[in-house]
Give the backbone structure.
Amino acid sequence: MSHPQTPHAMGVLWVQYGPYHSARFSALQKLAGTARVHPLEFSNQTSVYGWNRSHVPQGLITLCPGAVAENLSFWRVFRAARQTFADLKLDVCFLPSYAPSQSLAALLAAKSLGLRTVMMNESHAGTARAKGLAASLKRRLVALFDAALVGGQPQKRYLASLGMPDKLIQIGYDTVDNDFFAAQAALVRSRPSEFRNKYRLPEHYFLSLGRFVPKKNLAALIRAYHQALVARPSSETHLVLVGSGADEAALRALSHELHLRVYDKVSAGYEVTTSPTEPEPPGVHFYGFRQIDENPVFYALADAFILPSLYEEWGLVVNEAMACGLPVVVSETAGCAEDLLVPDRLPAPPVMSPDLQVRLAQFTGGLRQNGFLFDPQSIHELSDALCLLEAAPEMRANMGRASRQMIARFSCETFATNALFAANAALARSGPTNPP
């Protein structure tokens, strides 16, 4: 892919810079060469994420320091954004979508100065909630942007349906630092006993990582895991849940209700552990929230990664799991499903018992080269996918290798290259580009 020319000065604004944003920004800054690229955020506090802030970009500008991002008023953001954009003499500003009101304030501040704007968006038809008048207003807001950088094909189709010309939409917004995850996973796998003992991880487990909120559909995952254990009584595969949130108590209660063993591992990895991990009967392990630097440990030693969400704008954890070389089982309603799980035949028929061969042949979800797609409303489909993955180590290995190859198309370098294409598309639109 050829590299586009760059504007003189760009601003990249997010609600708050976390590890994902910092990795993408660094790639863009590197590719931009002599152009000035400024990292901007609404606030240094958010009520949603507890990210470690040790890796924020040098020169990060916080528009409204000290305030919780979700509580910021429209006018405070508008005034701060307008002043900052003017002081930096930006040509183009990348903005986080068209909602909530803080993003709208930043957009209008940029337009009042005559700046070109690029929408960073991961919405698709499956996550769209606006109807009637709200949908009409959304189309008007989209028209205020000069170009867009979106997650993948579903996001591109959705934005085009709202009136953004196809030629002004680039994909590749939803990326992670693939090299970091691959390298860390390789390190962990080079010393598996050390890390397994430190984190008290079972020998075999399925992994899900993310917030414990209703849309993540983790109750369905626990029920599907229970069904898989019933179908395969000799199973030694556990379910590891990394994350926290409002649903945690209910998920623990459901596990007890299904007579699954529940393991509280929230302190694992923080306490000193020298003795080898003793085998435990299969069950559900709760590890609590972990920073991104720890997550490769859980990916590296897992048998497969599961994203069971009812709906999902994208699902960056799937990127991470694929970069770590895992097979992935993903809800067909996740925004990443179409781009990251490409339909293809398996490289070779997996070796498994006749009854599981029949189960594979009759699987009603979507078999992919690097995993499975399933209907998030179907516990049976998800349970089948778990049974099939457990029974076929060779298939898991082949799918994991395919994951690592396929995720290379969605790297931070992809984000940077396509961000520059979007910036140039914005600048090429007719009309004045300089502040009045």
